[in-house]
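Feature request, filed as a ticket because there's no other form

It would be nice if the structure record came with a short human-readable summary line next to the tokens. Right now we just get the raw output. Example of a typical job, pasted below so the devs can see what we mean:
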Amino acid sequence: MRHHRTIRSVEEERTFYFKGTENGKPTGVCFINNKDLKSRITEIEGISVRVARVVIKTKKRYNMEIIQVYAPTTSHPEEEIEELYKEIQTILDISKSYYKFVIGNFNAKAGAKQSSDTKVGNFGFGKRNKREEKLVKFSEANRLFIFNTFFKKPTQRKWIWKGPNGTKNKIDNVLSNNRDILKDVSVPNCFKV
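Raw output as currently delivered:
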């Protein structure tokens, strides 16, 4: 499978950066940036069809790195999820940015806080399975707060995806190394399917 990066303008107000496949399958990660932000982007890179990164200059001394993730579903082999976490870990290990975010569809939820959790808040949703435990362990090991679990939300704002059997899941996550950087994380109703 060959990968490519396409950069194109979406309207005049935004720039669309995409990493995906040429075979037409709906796989890939992207960033849509406001035109005012374009001059502050110092790096943008498509690592794979599942991981991309952008570095943004925030102030004279600080950079913000955002790693966008699209994790394989549970129908994919465990090796694919292991490869995804290795890709993210490699980026985090070499990152010199002060603010770090790992965001996107992890196809996993943090679930309710457990006594050993230090990076999960009091407002997780649902129970964890093996893959979801991997997300929490990854967050703990990298000192990344799972922001979705830190803000109390009404039920309709706690989930992003509804399965064929009616199960509701919070599989999109926002992780960051700085607990004080975000004031809220919410699921807009318009994105629910």
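Something like this underneath would help us a lot:
Residues 1-11 have pLDDT under 50 and may be disordered.
The longest strand covers residues 3-10.
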